[in-house]
Structure formats: C-alpha cells, structure tokens
Amino acid sequence: MARGAANAARRGDTIPPPLPEAILCLSRAVRALALFLEEPGPPDEVRRYALAAASKATALLQERHDLAISVLVGQVRSAAMDLLRSTSMDQASALQALEEAAGRASEIG
Predict the structure, then answer these.
(1) pTM for this one?
(2) Residue 89: inside a domain, yes or no?
C-alpha cells in the first residue's frame, strides 16, 4: 500500500481525499487492535474502523477506475479483511461483513 501511494505521488497522480481517509481508518483499526490484544474485550472498534476503511476506499471506484486507484482500493480491502480476521472472525463472516459494508468486489465500478 505504501509503495502504491508513493508511486502515485511520484507520478503526480491526483489522490482523491477518500483514499487517505480510508488509510487513516485502517491506522485507527490497527491501534484499536493493539488495545484489543492487550486487554481482550469486544473487538467492535477494530471492526468498525476496518469496515469504514473498506467502504470509503471502495466508494472511489464509482468515480475512478484507473489501475493505481484500483490497486490501492484492493489493498485497503485486503488489509481490512486481515483486521477483521484478527478479531477471531472466520473467513466467511469477515467476507460477509466486508461485502455488506463495502459491496462485492466483483460488482464494483
């Protein structure tokens, strides 16, 4: 994700504001995950931020569908999925939550 963002910046690509917002949501999810791992409890914040990240990023594909944006959106969705799985969600439940929040990858754009 960092490499893709750096490449886009190097090329002078315009990065739409929702993408940095999505990455910020991912960072909040990671911080919430650290707290969850230190003091186990409900993983609601981790999941909420991860799903918000996927939703914000995926919404970009309604406006732009160029390769650079598609790759970054895919990476945000993948990271969100990893974060959901880290809270003990099984693959099917995590995928269902992601698709409910952000749509099916095959139907976007």
Answers:
(1) 0.90
(2) yes
In angstroms, the CA 69 to CA 14 distance is 10
Residue 35 lies in a domain: no
Which domain does 61 fall in, by range?
Answer: 1-10+43-102
Could you read off the pLDDT of 59-86 as tens digits, one per residue?
A: 998 888 788 888 899 999 999 999 999 9
Is 50 within 8 Å of 95 (Cβ atoms)? no
Q: Could you tell me the sign of the dihedral formed by the alpha carbons of 22, 107, 71, 79, in that order?
A: positive
The total number of structural domains in the chain stands at 1
Of 55, 34, 52, give the one whose Cα is nearest residue 43: 34
What would the DSSP string read from start to end of the chain? -HHHHHHHHHHTPPPPTHHHHHHHHHHHHHHHHHHHHHS----HHHHHHHHHHHHHHHHGGGT---HHHHHHHHHHHHHHHHHHHTTT--HHHHHHHHHHHH--GGG--
